[in-house]
Amino acid sequence: MTIRTALCLWLVVIHSVYGQSDSTNQKIYQVTKKYELTGSILFIGVSSVGFKKLDHLASFTAEDVKALDINKINAFDRPVALYNPAGFERAQARSDLFLNVAILSPVLLMADKRIRKDWLDLLTLYAVTHAVDNIIYFASAYSIRRARPLTYNPGLPLESKIGEAKTNSFYSGHVSFSSTSTYFLAKVFTDYHGIKGWKRILTYSVASVPPALVAWNRMEAGKHFRTDVMTGFAVGAACGILIPEWHKRRKNMEKVTLDPYFTPTGQSGLTLGVKL
């Protein structure tokens, strides 16, 4: 199952199972479903074309491989270029599995009756969060050419080091997409239940496990360096937290009003009001 297929499946499942919502309770986030949901799903759908073009852009030739110097890799990342190729295929399969589990993980929110009532808002918010994450990823991956660790590996034949998708190592999209998903799950859950302190830290710690597993296996598969997966983790986590937080703050801003006033004596000014 591909990344795009997994995300689309999540959208379809939520839409099919929870076709009715209860809007009697106060919502946590302010979303504009008409524009945000439509635009985000459209962007996620057509981004598959962007991934294909990126793979082509990141092509490597035999001459490119021969010009590589493993000693030019920083000391922190260098060991990854020497991982045993015998485990590459299994690690690749594991990373894809953990990625798909992470992407589908927010469906767990639907087991909570308090959260389930806002299923369409959360569907919209989840799509927007991934769309933003994709935009940041494309901006980086299209701009930076970094050879994957496997292209340096002396244990691999030359034919395994050339072709498409060999110089888009920075940063890891797999890790970014997975941390976006699980941190979104943690953010929404803690917001709805007002979880603070150590319980909040514990929730985010649990949310870190799937993307950490993806990161480990992406390195074990020779796809990314340590700094690649660390950056991907950070970007995804930031999206998973900050996009819902922005929509939460936007909702709160609607409670604040600024209105002009005029008096019979000719005085005028502005009144600041807060709706409670």
Spatial order of the strands forming the largest sheet: 1-2
- The helicity comes to 55-70%
Separation of termini? 47 Å
Structural class: mainly alpha
What count of domains describes the coordinates?
1
Number of helices: 10
Radius of gyration: 23 Å
Mean pLDDT: 86
Order of helices and strands: HHHHHHHHHHEE
The tally of beta strands, per DSSP, is: 2
Biggest sheet character: 2 strands, antiparallel
Topology of helices and strands:
Blueprint: H1 3-17, H2 33-57, H3 62-66, H4 88-104, H5 113-116, H6 119-141, H7 173-193, H8 197-207, H9 209-220, H10 226-253, E1 256-262, E2 268-274
Antiparallel strand pairs: 1-2
Structure description:
- It is built from ten helices and two strands, in the order H-H-H-H-H-H-H-H-H-H-E-E.
- It is mainly α and 276 residues long.
- The protein has one domain.
- A two-stranded antiparallel sheet has the order 1-2.
- Strand 1 (256-262) and strand 2 form a beta hairpin.
- Helix 6 crosses helix 10 (226-253).
- The chain is elongated and about 60 Å long.
- The N and C termini lie far apart (47 Å).
- Residues 12-24 and 256-274 have low confidence and may be disordered.
